[in-house]
Amino acid sequence: MHTCLFEVKNKKTSDVLNKLFYGMVFSVGGDASLVYKELFILGKLSFGIAQTFFIRAFGFDPLKPHIGIILASLVILILSQIVPNIDDSAIKVGLPFYATLLGTMTWRALARVSQRPHLGGSRCLEKNA
Question: Is residue 71 within 8 Å of 58, Cβ to Cβ?
Fold first, then answer.
């Protein structure tokens, strides 16, 4: 049986897949850490590293700054309502940083939505049909 899960077209695609893979690994680490209350900060740090890998995987081409401006405005608006009501200083500092990572990752993902994927998935479906 032919599998296309690891079909890679070129080095650039391989780099993207590696970054996505490491992002998922750190996401799993974040999920595992959040099971235990004492590992909350470690879990959020792991999720932050995951978001950094996702941002690097999506890259900044095409830039599409209008999407970034809209998302940044939403993040600022939401944070301005939430942060003043937080008492824990670690969360008060960490939340804006983490929200910025999430907003940036969302911007980069949305900026690439219109691009066709170059991972070989559609050709894989055709081969196996």
Answer: no
How many residues in total does the chain contain? 129
Q: Note whether 58 and 108 are within 8 A (CB).
A: yes
Q: Which of 42, 66, 52, 58 has its CA nearest to residue 22?
A: 52
The model carries a pTM of 0.79
N-terminal to C-terminal alpha carbon distance within the chain: 12
pLDDT along the chain (129 residues), means of 10: 52 88 97 95 96 96 96 98 95 95 96 68 45
For residues 12 and 117, the answer to whether their CB atoms sit within 8 Å is no
CA separation (Å) from 56 to 15, 21, 104?
A: 10, 12, 10
Give the span between the Cα atoms of 67 and 111, in whole angstroms.
7
CB 56 within 8 A of CB 39: no
CA distance 88 to 92: 6
Q: For residue 106, give the 3-state DSSP assignment.
A: helix
Q: Dig out the tokens for 107 from the structure.
A: 């911007």
Alpha helices, DSSP H, located in 1-129: 11-33, 40-58, 65-82, 89-111, 121-128
